[in-house]
Amino acid sequence: MKNTIRVERARMDITQAELAKRTDVSRQTINAIEANKYVPSTVLALKIARLFGKTVNDIFELEDED
Amino acid sequence: MKNKLLLPRACRIIGLILLPFAIVFLYAVENHNFSIPFLRYNMPKPNEGNFFGNSDFLFGKNFYADFSNEVALLATFICLFMVAFSKQKNEDEYVSAVRLRALQISVYANYIILALASILIYGVSFLVVMEVNLFTILILFIIIFNFNLHIRPRLSKSKTA
Fold first, then answer.
1. Could you tell me if residue B111 is inside a domain?
2. CB atoms closer than 10 angstroms to residue A22
3. Taking the domain A2-60, which CATH number applies?
């Protein structure tokens, strides 16, 4: 599953650490999600989407192999 | 995500501090017959007609017990356990996922090592392997978990940079 967190972060001009703090997770978690090494839980995906003011579908997108 | 089955974070630091002493103690007990005086006891002679039949057969007149070995093993176990299963600074769902995967890999590796040892090693040497094998899961888990959580992201970051 790919995502546009890095783009959204750049748009909002916030760092991984700030995003991690605001979603109550570790910076490693945000780093792993951005690198497509970890698929977040529904709760975390909803938190991230809400923080960017978008829907989960706008941030996360299924790939062919999913 | 709250994981209630983990020890407080302070246990990790205590475990890390005490682990070297426990390992040195275990090594000294196992290889140099080291023992602590207050852990040596003269136990009363077991009753006649017990599980061992004639009590003189196993223990002689006095049952001499040294608990240094048991204490050393327990201390090493407890220290490793404290290091392995304490909370991280930021305990979240990703850390839980990494922990679960590390635990799975370490259990697999442990039994692969055990299977190979049972095929390749015989006699008294196998008992030595079994003794070391008591700690393999915990040691492998600590290495894999910390590598995946702390070192691997840095390596992949330096590759992409």
1. yes
2. 12
3. 1.10.260.40
B67, B87, B107 - which closes a domain:
B87
Interface list for chain A against chain B, based on CB atoms closer than 8 Å:
20, 24-29, 31-33, 35, 38, 40-41, 44
pTM for this entry: 0.81
Contact present, B93 and B28 (Cβ < 8 Å): no
Determine whether the interchain pair A29/B1 forms a contact, defined as Cβ–Cβ distance below 8 Å: no
The domain total for chain B is 2
Fill in the amino acid letter for B95.
Answer: V
Contact between residue B114 and residue B126 where contact means Cβ atoms under 8 Å apart = no
B65 with B34, same domain: the answer is yes
Instruction: Give this complex's ipTM.
Output: 0.85
What residue type is assigned to position B12 of the chain? Answer: R
Looking at chain B, which residue has its C-alpha nearest residue A17? B90
The string of pLDDT tens digits covering residues B28-37 is 998 888 888 8
Work out the burial of residue A27: count CB atoms within 10 Å of its CB; fewer than 13 is exposed, 13-18 middle, 19 or more buried: middle
